[in-house]
Each structure stands twice: as structure tokens, then as C-alpha cells.
Amino acid sequence: ASALRPIGTLTGRHILVTSGPTHEPIDPVRYLANRSSGRQGHAIAASLSRLGARVTLVSGPVALEDPAGIATIHVETAREMRDAVRNALPADAAVFCAAVADWHAETALQKIKKNGAAPNLQLVENPDILREVSRLDEQRPRLVIGFAAETENLIENARRKRARKGCDWIVANLVGTASDVMGGMENEVTLVTENDIEPWPRAGKSAIAEHLAARIAEALA
Ligand code: CTP
Ligand code: CA
């Protein structure tokens, strides 16, 4: 079949994308979260789908519509995201755009009341989904892409992160007070591969998504 596949497209490929934040409940009415809007991950899913891929989008809680024609699985916590990702494999490529919460708390069964001392949240580390998938034996996607949101030392941190996770590419971006990237409409990223550091011009999140999808198509061709 591969001889019949139009060059540069993703027809016949299955690609997994994670997007959005995760919410980690503290009690029935409160949670830990982060500022991710899901816009970048959802745009990447849409771009991959336009190139012909069958896309599975695993999304944390976002205020976005499910992208048309894309199987979207809704999850809340990092642990649910991990299970949904593992169930969606095998895939030819996986793009981990979600801003997964690093920790979860032991969830109180009743609303924590404000009487006396502030509660002491005992945080426990969440599964590292990107790292787990990057280190799979048989089910490892051929191309595994992570994102790295850093507030300082962008390239150095991204290179270390790439090595630590075992993924193929890292899309690195600076976040924090000096930028309006997280939750915003634009993004400014640097693609870190095994042998290259490629700064991309600042652009709308859908333009970044188009470019990344094209690069993925090229890599899988
Ligand atoms: N990621 C993941 N599962 C986690 C944490 C992160 O799959 N539990 C993925 C993210 O989707 C992203 C990449 O790992 O693609 C890097 O996330 P980041 O938060 O930058 O890395 P961490 O290893 O959590 O390091 P830190 O937050 O300490 O910088
Ligand atoms: Ca993290």
C-alpha cells in the first residue's frame, strides 16, 4: 500500500495527539491545574487530519469544540490521560502537547472545610506519559514528539528533556511572565531533534501546527 500513498501526506497513518491541561482533584469541588488552553494541541490534531491521518485526540478539560472528524477522548486527570493514550496505541506517531499536571493530591471525599490550619496537600508524582511511551518496546510509535515549556535556559533544558524522556523531537517554547504563549493565540518554538536546533519564527498556533504536521509527514514518508 505504501507505494500508492501520495508523497507528503499522512493517508493510512494513525497519529495520537494529547492536548490541554489535566485537572487533579483535591476534593469534590477543587482541583490543581495549569494555564494550557489546548489550542496548540487541537490545532496540531486538525492539521494532521487535513493531511489525511487518522487522528486520536486525547484531551484534558478545555473550552474548545472537538475538531471535526477527529476521534476525541475526554479525560480529566493525568492518570486517565495515561490510560487513554495506552488504549489508543498502536500509532505511527504521537505528539504530546498536553500540559500534564506533574502531581496529584490524595482526593478528600468531602469538601475540605476552612476551620483552623490550612490543609497540607500531600502531592504524589503523576505518571510521565511521554517518557513511558518513548520507552515502550513493541508499541513505541516510530516518531514520538514532546513539548517543553520552559521559563529559562530553553535550549539546554529542552535537550536534556529530550534525552531524559527518550523521545525523538522536542518542540520547545518559553512560557511565563515574559510571554503570552500559554493560553494565548501565538507561539514561538524551537524544534530540537537529535542533531539539530531549529528556531521557528513566532506565528499563530495554527501556522505552527501546519508546519509541524508537514514535518511529521516528511519524517514518516
Ligand atoms: N508530559 C507527560 N506526562 C507528564 C508530564 C509531562 O506526557 N506527567 C509530557 C508533556 O506533554 C510534554 C513533555 O512531557 O510533551 C514535557 O513536559 P514538561 O512539563 O515540560 O516536562 P517535565 O518532565 O514534567 O519537566 P518539568 O515540568 O519539571 O520541566
Ligand atoms: Ca511538567
Automatic annotation (TrEMBL):
This is Coenzyme A biosynthesis bifunctional protein CoaBC. In the N-terminal section; belongs to the HFCD (homo-oligomeric flavin containing Cys decarboxylase) superfamily. In the C-terminal section; belongs to the PPC synthetase family. Pathway: Cofactor biosynthesis; coenzyme A biosynthesis; CoA from (R)-pantothenate: step 2/5; Cofactor biosynthesis; coenzyme A biosynthesis; CoA from (R)-pantothenate: step 3/5. It catalyses: N-[(R)-4-phosphopantothenoyl]-L-cysteine + H(+) = (R)-4'-phosphopantetheine + CO2; (R)-4'-phosphopantothenate + L-cysteine + CTP = N-[(R)-4-phosphopantothenoyl]-L-cysteine + CMP + diphosphate + H(+). Its EC number is 4.1.1.36, 6.3.2.5. GO terms for molecular function: phosphopantothenate--cysteine ligase activity; phosphopantothenoylcysteine decarboxylase activity. CTP binds at D102, K111, P127, D128, I129, L130, F147, K161, K165. Its cofactor is FMN; Mg(2+). Catalyzes two sequential steps in the biosynthesis of coenzyme A. In the first step cysteine is conjugated to 4'-phosphopantothenate to form 4-phosphopantothenoylcysteine. In the second step the latter compound is decarboxylated to form 4'-phosphopantotheine. Residues 10-218 form the DNA/pantothenate metabolism flavoprotein C-terminal domain. Keywords: Decarboxylase, Flavoprotein, FMN, Ligase, Lyase, Magnesium, Metal-binding, Multifunctional enzyme. It comes from Acidiphilium iwatense. Residues 15-221 are annotated as: Phosphopantothenate--cysteine ligase. Binds 1 FMN per subunit.
